[in-house]
Amino acid sequence: METFLRDLKHSCRMFLQRPGFTFTAIAVLALGIGLNTAMFSVINTVLLKPLHAPDPERVVIFLSTSSQGSTSDASEIKFNIWREQAAVLQDVSGYYMGTVNLTGVDQPQRAIAIYVTGDYFHLFGLSPAQGRGFITEEEQVNGPKVAILSNEFWNRAFGGDPQIIGKTISLNGGSYGVVGVMPPGVQTETPDSVDVWLPFAIDPNSSFQAHYFKALGRLKPGLSLAAVNAQLELVTHEFRRKFPNTVSSSRGDVFSVALMEHVLVQDARSSLLVLSGSVFLVLLIACANVANLLLVRATGRTGEIAVRLALGASRMRIIRQMLTEGALLSIVGGIIGLILGFITIHFLLGLNAARIPRIGANGANVMLDWRVLLFTLGVSLLTSILFGLFPAIKASGADLNSHLREAIGRGGTGLSGNRTRSLLVVSEMSLALLLLIGAALLIRTFIALRSVNPGFQTQNIVTTQTLLDPHAGGKAGVNEIVDDAIRRISAISGVKSVGYTKYLPLSGAFSSLPIIIVGRPLNGPSHGVARWMVNSPSYFEILHIPLVRGRFFTEADRLDTPLVAIVNQTMARQLWKDGDPIGDQILIGKGLGPNFAEGPRQIVGIVGDVLDSGLSEPSQPTVYIPGAQLSDARTTGKPVSWVISTKGPSNALNTIILRELGQATGEPVSPVIAMDEVKYKSTARQELNMLLMSIFGGAALLLAAIGIYGLLAYTVRQRTREIGVRMALGARSVDVRNMVLSQGMRLATIGIAVGIVAATVLTRFLSGFLFGVKALDPFVFIFVPVLLATVALVAIWLPANRASRVEPTTALRYE
Q1: Mind listing the pLDDT tens digit for each residue in 615-660?
Q2: Do 106 and 234 fall into the same domain?
Q3: In this structure, are 562 and 640 located in the same domain?
Q4: Is residue 341 within a helix (H) or strand (E), and if so which, with residue range?
Q5: Cα end-to-end distance, the chain, whole Å
Q6: With DSSP H G I counted as helix, E B as strand and the rest as coil, what are the percentages for the chain, rounded to 5?
Q7: What gap in Å lies between CA 418 and CA 685, rounded to an integer?
Q8: pTM for the whole thing?
Q9: pLDDT in tens, 758-785
Q10: Quick one: DSSP state of residue 56?
Q11: Which of the listed residues 637, 666, 695 is the one where a domain comes to its end?
């Protein structure tokens, strides 16, 4: 211990004597460790932390798999079958998310609601801190309306009213009795923080086939996932026998379960792992940089090492001292990197959280815990070994005579030392090229996505959301609310047109329903499946969705007129192939329950395709119906998105729009956002990937430039006497400069060549993240090496130019 403290004190004294070296080494390490800590803190939150549930390794989510793919969306008819599998599963629960409007308070507001079946609370180990949970009576169809509030919502909306239990609140125009308040900080593994829990009642005899919620459960103790899935395969056959005419049976759905913690993060896992591998390369470059610094410093300490060896110090003693110095640098760099990394990742997630699961709003769940602290400590110690061990062995390995010759200036530094430092610089260049190519490919992907035509226009169009409830709006019906809202907003100076839709483009929240073409022979429960869109007549005009054939909806398409529909081009091609759908009649959602018990609709038009799922996803079959032809029972209490076209930027109109819409609907109105922002949010994940890779690539470029500059600057200083002799013998300044440039660019070229070879192999791991660009994109593989070579040339030019200005007389006196 005493020896260690003596080494530590000696290391501190050495670093204080050389502040330039110390600052550079710590800054480089803080950059590398900080980026790795930032990335790991996200991975820790998303991939490593267990679910917030008892026995999280046994919590599963139900899946239905067919030839069309796998989905975790559940229907009531399936849920009732799954709930019966008590022999292999327990706490089988269903839930879905929604928004509700809280009214009857001083400040009406929107709240995030989660509708849950009774076993949900036991599955996730949730229990109210005040009041109670739902009782059996409240979990029945048409049972009492009750609510449980989150602690945060209770304080925000009700001022922490201590008498809240038993009071009645108004949600979506309905009266709900408050029966409980959850403890602070409850986490539900949902994308948004939950404000209120509401009962989700499912009729045990339901035949409703619409897939609109998630079903969860817990494996019985002692049962494996494979054993439960084997049982569910048998259940699948029983389901098909019992319900042969359902869409799921005709599609060949197979039931199974998967661990919820895997399904929850499956979309983010691969991108996070690729980004983690990339940021580790930045750490390697940082280590190579510091190793080069230590090699240079070790060369300058030959006198000290010679004296210590002459006085009897062992080789291991020298190594231990230098490793202590490296560890001290790493620990200090790690502490600074931990702080910078934590601040940086929260700043970036505040700009763009990209709907990464489990991280919370703006990355609120990304916190420093023992895993992050242990990771940072481990990385710090690893870096000290990576960059410190070889210089330590190198410095202690030469014999005493070699050290003494170098100490008195006659031995030079040796060719092997320069070769080692050159190898490190080549490694930095190749790793930097690899990261820059990855960043460039993601930048090209992002540009390609942003240039995709989504099938609609966004310029000078804004959107907001409300509920439609005649009781809240004081109107005779939903259509009267809509007419009043359209009249009010259209009267605003600067507004061109206004309409509404049930599902906003690029929102991803769509219902797919079975379609039956009247008069066509049927082999199975339906002829196909299409997305179901509800909108006003002006919707197509506002978003500039083109009419291909037929007509748009008109104000005459009301409840008391013949039912009509419009289909998109994809649906027309898939269900009619070479035929013409206009004039044909279709049944939408037949057999899905009373909400879809309507007569046939006549197709009156075909419109252009809209990329509803995302800019990188193909258009899906879609059927549009006029909202005015839906009964109040199907629309009351349901959210709709208003789309408003303005003559210019809408900032000055937003407050007026919100006021008029609130007065027309009698409901809280969500903030106005531009459709441009909706479009941009659809590429948020790609934007975050591009941003992080660009940061990693920029850091790598900076470190590589510092590395090659440092090597050449040291080489020039080391060869000052040689350069003086050359110039005294007649060498010109330009010859000296070109000599240094040639040596530096040779290293850069080798590193770039190695990097290109590595990139051709490793960029295939990026293929799943690319759009509109190939993994071996020629432009990227030409532009990036040229960019790196240019930066290297600038870094090399500085010491080369300095070498060309060496005065021969001064150089010949140089020691």
Answers
A1: 888 899 999 999 999 988 888 878 899 999 999 887 889 999 999 9
A2: yes
A3: yes
A4: helix 315-351
A5: 39
A6: 55, 15, 30
A7: 44
A8: 0.84
A9: 999 999 888 888 999 999 999 999 999 9
A10: G
A11: 666
